[in-house]
Write a structure and sequence with these properties.
The chain is of the alpha+beta class and 519 residues long. It is 41% helix and 12% strand. β2 and β3 form a beta hairpin. α12 runs antiparallel to α14. The longest helix is centred in the first third of the chain and has 28 residues. The N terminus and C terminus are likely disordered. The structure holds adenosine-5'-diphosphate and manganese (II) ion. Manganese (II) ion binds next to loops. Belongs to the protein kinase superfamily. RIO-type Ser/Thr kinase family. Its EC number is 2.7.11.1. This is Serine/threonine-protein kinase RIO3.
Length: 519
């Protein structure tokens, strides 16, 4: 690329960005000047080129028309897609063969050679690595009983002259290498993570800077794509996973997309003939399924940090995971929460299978038509009242029996089907002990009570009464500000309790019960 081209790249600020941002860039001595006209024309050229490319390769997956994926026809209309899918399969087989050869050559030898560099699929990119867990086994809800551990604050380990502080160069270097895992999934960090590589703070910080600016750049690119024709598309890897589900006979046909949100895309599918094994039972596929694909671009999930980071259920895992895995964790969380609800008899989709960031569940609706959201139906006053009492009941069950707070409850996430309300969208749901759990509950209560009061249900409790009715707490404040202050005080107390005792035992009279704030 010529210097002007580089300088005119989207990242360019006043000077050539690559020089200051890239850790290996030349020192900031020379600066390549370029006129505004150059920049303009370069941009224009790029745009034109892009247009041309788009015309040559019509967008990868538009799912609106016709069946999305079927058994016989896997959208052969897109040669590019097909080629990509074949290429992925080929690469994977190639790598597997390479691994076999590597093993054969090395045998038991103490000195081994590695074919790693010849692999097609970058290890960081691969979705077939050994550490993959599909979390399909709901017998163990990993979030349920884990006790929070308090980490020692002292900042050193060992005794006497063997003491190692957190500033130790080697320890620090290794830590820095490990921390590269936290960079965006798209950021290729090479094999360093697997090796005993010690990065100095200086190098690490430079890399971090670079990773973040790369992330921002790719976010912008992604945004552009989102607004273009690919709006309803999923990435090739997801498509391949979906394709495999159809191939395995689990799904008959994926008919199309029923919703595109910021964080997920939901598809409708007809269930296949497969009998599957779920939670120690044999089950047949539901006749119709909803497939929720959690978006694998990290950026949408950034603002969800507060749900997950403070959730003690995730504390140990959060720090160890790379962003790709965090996204899968949302899917995993939705699965476990739905299972808890199912066990309590709350009307909600039934989980079928979880595959990485893809959650297959039963479809609420009929003949491809999803049940309407509560906000979109006009109910008779009788049904409205019925719906209200049902929700009140469900909120209590959710809290007491499932030990959960929905945390995004509103007329948008309740479907009206078979003359009753169904709860959906529970990936963000938290346990009542979550540091902000009660605030989330209060917000849920506000949404619900406002909706039904506006809807003419005179019996509807106000948000504060509803909060007490659901939580079993007895907050007496008669105005919102004081009420909220009391909620926060309770949360604070709870948090201190966890900090001091380091155990949730004292808060949980028996496993799974909500906490009692009675001190
Ligand atoms: P998000 O709001 O995070 O994008 P949701 O889980 O709320 O994800 O799903 C988005 C939309 O997809 C819902 O509003 C609903 O219309 C539809 N949907 C989701 N799950 C199902 C299901 N199991 N059955 C029918 N429709 C569903
Ligand atoms: Mn939703």
């Amino acid at each position: 690329m010529d210097p002007v081209g580089v300088a005119a790249a989207p990242e360019a600020g006043p000077g050539p960005a690559w020089q200051s941002k890239c850790p290996w860039g030349a020192p900031n001595t020379t600066s390549i000047s370029c006129s505004l006209a150059d920049v303009m024309s370069e941009q224009l050229a790029k745009e034109l080129q892009l247009e041309e490319e788009n015309a040559a390769f019509p967008e990868v997956v538009a799912v609106a028309e016709g069946p999305f994926i079927t058994g016989e026809n896997t959208d052969t209309s897109s040669d590019l897609m097909l080629a990509q899918m074949l290429q992925m399969e080929f690469d994977r087989e190639y790598d597997a063969q390479l691994r076999r050869e590597e093993r054969k050559i090395n045998g038991d030898s103490k000195v081994s050679i590695s074919f790693e560099n010849y692999r097609k699929v970058h290890p960081y990119d691969s979705d077939s690595s050994e550490d993959e867990v599909d979390w399909q086994d709901t017998r163990h809800d990993p979030y349920r009983a884990d006790k929070p551990t308090t980490t020692p604050r002292k900042g050193f380990i060992g005794k006497g002259k063997d003491i190692t502080t957190k500033h130790d160069e080697v320890v620090c270097g290794r830590k820095n290498t490990a921390r590269m895992e936290n960079f965006a999934p798209e950021f290729q960090v090479g094999d360093g993570i697997g090796m005993d590589l010690k990065l100095s703070n200086q190098v690490f910080n430079a890399l971090k800077q670079h990773a973040y600016s790369e992330e921002r750049r790719s976010a912008r690119l992604h945004e552009k794509k989102e607004h273009s024709t690919a709006e309803k598309a999923v990435d090739p890897k997801t498509r391949l996973l979906l394709y495999k589900m159809v191939n395995a006979g689990m799904l008959e046909t994926i008919t199309g997309c029923i919703s595109t949100g910021k964080e997920s895309v939901v598809f409708h599918a007809y269930g296949g003939k497969l009998v599957y094994y779920f939670a120690t039972e044999d089950k047949v596929m539901p006749p119709e399924c909803a497939i929720k694909v959690f978006k694998t671009t990290l950026n949408e999930f950034k603002n969800r940090d507060k749900y997950i980071k403070d959730d003690y259920r995730f504390k140990d895992r959060f720090s160890k995971l790379n962003p790709r895995k965090i996204i899968r964790m949302w899917a995993e969380k939705e699965m476990h929460n739905l299972t808890r609800m199912q066990n309590a008899g709350i009307p909600c989709p039934q989980v079928v299978i979880l595959k990485k960031h893809i959650l297959v569940m039963s479809f609420i609706g009929q003949d491809q038509v999803p049940a309407p959201k509560l906000k979109d139906v006009t109910l008779s006053s009788e049904d409205m009242k019925k719906a209200y009492y049902q929700i009140l009941n469900m909120m209590q069950q959710l809290y007491k029996e499932c030990n959960l707070i929905h945390a995004d409850l509103s007329e948008y996430n309740m479907l009206w089907h078979d003359r009753k309300v169904w709860l959906i969208d529970v990936s963000q749901s938290v346990e009542p002990t979550h540091p902000h759990g009660l605030e989330f509950l209060f917000r849920d209560c506000r949404n619900v009570s406002q909706f039904f009061q506006k809807g003419g249900v005179v019996e509807a409790l106000n948000e504060r009464e509803l909060f007490n009715a659901v939580s079993g707490l007895n907050i007496t404040a008669d105005n919102e500000v004081d009420f909220q202050a009391e909620i926060e005080a309770l949360e604070k107390m709870n948090e201190d309790h966890v900090q001091n005792h380091g155990k949730k035992l004292s808060m949980f009279p028996s496993d799974g019960d909500p906490p009692i704030f009675d001190e």
